[in-house]
Recover the amino acids of this structure.
């Protein structure tokens, strides 16, 4: 299989392997980009742009603050709980320059979810947007957090625009709750403190951890995938090889990034843009379609990354249909399966074909993607350079071309393992470094891969992984619920929607159960449908049979 893939890559003008030793760390990649593209625009959000030089200056200030004004040492964890604002790359690269490990944290987390991630990672600091800091206020005392840095929407905008946007958010729109957090420090104060002392460069080796990227688990407990600098750098280089097939140019492209940077798919796309000297337009709230369309129309967009549910929402909006797409030459899809209808509708309206890829948090994330010189809708493309693939049956034996088997992957982008969970690591990775994805795939004769089924019970809602056991565990804490089981069912807009089958001891309503879930789960994890039953189907040993419910 791997010989076929290598030949297919070369046929498309893509090397079969990449030199993953070319860069030691994300910091080195960042510094090279700054040296080459200093005055060019790097990131924009809410109408303000940071150049590469601006980004480095601010990142050094934040790194200096971490070094000289906190208790953090290289290797300690720092959580970043921010939507897509220009503060994110400043904090990210500042933290990495100081030798810290970044813990990307979903801004939509409930207190329960946030507490677990902060406790599990033992993060000592967190940077959070004031608008969403209320859950942190409830759980901070139960964690190892020693430093809380709070930023507001426009903190990096120039005066008076900074003051105006922040005041409107706080006093007019009332988007910022009143906080009573201890040890709190404003982001701009941290930058000023860092500016007063010089940054001291920290030696960073490729095998050092760069990020703990949390992903759900079949046990319902989120696990931190340990991604080293080597993992992330390797995947960026692998992606760059594929991007060459899209005629992607340096220092001339503008990518609209509506998907959150805390998600590994969007994160890696943004790093690819950085190292090529290109411009990222960060969209803080992609659910606000009106604002998203406005952002897209404000810049000469040449590239866009999204997921099926977002493509569908945009294509159904009259304002989007009237836009000028003459400069758009690349649309990337990941995070969830791309439907044929969504791909056809997007191409009809924009004139740009969607290129689908596939990956997982544990693989930094890209495993495969369609090359621009040979895009096949309905497939996940070719394995990226320096990646080995095998498909195995239930006995672990390799299957033939055209036959379905579990997709296993080996390559420099595969994680180091799960943070403090050797048993969970051993369950998905063998001693030779093969990672079991849990997805069932087929390989065509030309080397292209197709996902045909999912071995796991995982549900994918708008590109986000949802694990049924977590939902079951939350809902069974309700005093009126005897047992329950969550399943995913097809949905045209979201890819899948969550349906919960419930056995109760009373006449509790679906509305009450949904409200209960909303208090304890991030919005995309809340079941949209409830079906009440007298009993649930079970195996001979009493395990609930989700496949029968589906």
């Amino acid at each position: 299989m791997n010989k076929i893939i290598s030949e297919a890559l070369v046929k498309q003008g893509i090397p079969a392997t990449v030199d993953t030793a070319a860069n030691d760390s994300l910091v080195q990649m960042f510094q090279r980009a700054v040296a080459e593209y200093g005055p060019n625009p790097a990131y924009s959000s809410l109408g303000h742009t940071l150049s590469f030089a601006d980004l480095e200056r601010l990142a050094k200030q934040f790194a200096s603050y971490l070094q000289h004004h906190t208790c953090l040492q290289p290797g300690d964890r720092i959580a970043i709980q921010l939507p897509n604002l220009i503060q994110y790359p400043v904090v990210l690269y500042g933290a990495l320059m100081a030798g810290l490990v970044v813990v990307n944290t979903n801004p939509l987390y409930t207190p329960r979810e946030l507490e677990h991630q902060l406790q599990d990672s033992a993060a000592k600091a967190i940077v959070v947007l004031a608008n969403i800091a209320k859950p942190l206020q409830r759980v901070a005392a139960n964690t190892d957090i020693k430093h809380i840095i709070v930023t507001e929407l426009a903190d990096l905008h120039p005066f008076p625009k900074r003051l105006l946007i922040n005041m409107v958010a706080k006093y007019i729109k009332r988007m910022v709750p009143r906080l009573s957090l201890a040890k709190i420090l404003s982001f701009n104060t941290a930058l000023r403190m860092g500016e007063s002392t010089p940054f001291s460069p920290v030696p960073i080796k490729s095998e050092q951890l760069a990020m703990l990227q949390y992903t759900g688990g079949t046990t319902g407990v989120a696990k931190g995938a340990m991604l080293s600098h080597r993992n992330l750098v390797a995947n960026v280089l692998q992606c760059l090889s594929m991007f060459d097939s899209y005629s992607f140019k340096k220092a001339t492209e503008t990518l609209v990034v509506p998907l959150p940077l805390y998600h590994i798919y969007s994160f890696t796309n943004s790093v690819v843009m950085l190292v090529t000297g290109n411009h990222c337009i960060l969209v803080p709230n992609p659910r606000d379609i009106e604002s998203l369309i406005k952002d897209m129309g404000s810049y000469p967009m040449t590239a866009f990354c999204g997921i099926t549910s977002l493509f569908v929402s945009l294509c159904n909006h009259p304002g989007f249909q009237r836009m000028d797409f003459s400069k758009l030459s690349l649309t990337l899809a990941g995070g969830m399966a791309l439907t044929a209808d969504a791909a056809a509708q997007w191409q009809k309206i924009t004139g740009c074909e969607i290129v689908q890829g596939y990956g997982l948090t544990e693989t930094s994330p890209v495993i495969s993607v369609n090359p621009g010189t040979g895009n096949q809708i309905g497939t996940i493309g070719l394995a990226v350079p320096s990646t080995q693939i095998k498909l195995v049956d239930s006995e672990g034996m390799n299957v033939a071309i055209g036959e379905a088997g579990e997709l296993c992957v080996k390559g420099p982008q595969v994680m180091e393992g799960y943070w403090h969970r050797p048993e969970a690591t051993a369950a998905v990775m063998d001693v030779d470094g093969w990672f079991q994805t849990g997805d069932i795939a087929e390989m065509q004769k030309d080397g292209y891969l197709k996902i045909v089924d999912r071995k796991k019970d995982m549900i994918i809602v708008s590109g986000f992984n949802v694990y049924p056991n977590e939902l079951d565990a939350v809902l069974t804490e309700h005093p009126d619920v005897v047992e329950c089981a969550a399943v995913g069912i097809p949905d045209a807009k979201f890819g899948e929607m969550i349906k919960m089958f419930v056995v109760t001891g009373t006449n509790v309503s679906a509305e009450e159960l949904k409200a209960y879930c909303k208090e304890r789960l991030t919005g995309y994890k809340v079941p949209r449908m409830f079906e009440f039953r007298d009993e649930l189907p079970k195996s001979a040993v009493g395990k609930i049979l989700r496949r029968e419910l589906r």
